[in-house]
């Protein structure tokens, strides 16, 4: 899937942050930062244990250990930073994930630091919206992310995971490809209409149309079953 350049520009011009784990206290919390200034903002609050390392020069999918300091240069927490360089991230942008201890105080202070340094709080669903806008997910896959998070049974989990990995999207693309192929053959016939040449076999065309109708009907009818699996009877 290709992204709409105007839409991509609109959603990529700022850097967003948000808590990726549930609100409340726990052993670990994860804070996500995504956007063009993720690395510079991260570096401004993070001191790595390896003095020669930094977020800005780290390779993608690398972990950095160190501390986050507050505005008074006091250590706030020891953290792990996960680095994701575009386009190899969930959103398709430069992103980092801060794994800190799950104190509500620590979470709040880190978010406040990030905002002070130029990030803003993400709107609900904005990470997935950016992933869609940057061509990392299509609409079907974006919808499946929410279904996967809320799945409460093995069956609903399986359906959401299949959809998120492009199961339905792949099927629709295959159907579209077959239709486009036959449409091009028919257009070719129109170009040579005076020569009375047939490029598209009519029997195969009707066979394809019946196959498409059957598969599309099955996809439409599967919605009711899928809705029952996700939400209950």
What does this structure look like?
- With 233 residues, this protein is an alpha+beta fold.
- It has helices at residues 5-12, 38-45, 104-116, 126-133, 139-150, 154-164, 167-191, 202-231; strands at residues 16-19, 26-34, 46-48, 62-69, 75-84, 95-102, 120-121.
- It has a 7-stranded mixed β-sheet, with helices on one face.
- The protein is elongated.
- The two termini are 35 Å apart.
Question: Mind sketching the topology for me?
Answer:
Blueprint: H1 5-12, E1 16-19, E2 26-34, H2 38-45, E3 46-48, E4 62-69, E5 75-84, E6 95-102, H3 104-116, E7 120-121, H4 126-133, H5 139-150, H6 154-164, H7 167-191, H8 202-231
Parallel strand pairs: 1-7
Antiparallel strand pairs: 1-2, 2-6, 3-4, 4-5, 5-6
Helix pairs in contact: 5-6, 7-8
Shape: elongated
Strand fraction: 15-25%
- Spatial order of the strands forming the largest sheet: 3-4-5-6-2-1-7
Uncertain spans:
1-9
Which structural category do the helix and sheet elements fall into?
A: alpha+beta
Radius of gyration: 24 Å
What is the average of the pLDDT values?
Answer: 82
Number of strands: 7
**Main sheet: strands, sense, barrel:** 7 strands, mixed
Q: What proportion of the residues is helical, as a percent range?
A: 40-55%
Cα distance spanning the termini: 35 Å
Helix-strand sequence: HEEHEEEEHEHHHHH
**Helix count, DSSP H or I runs of 4 or more residues:** 8
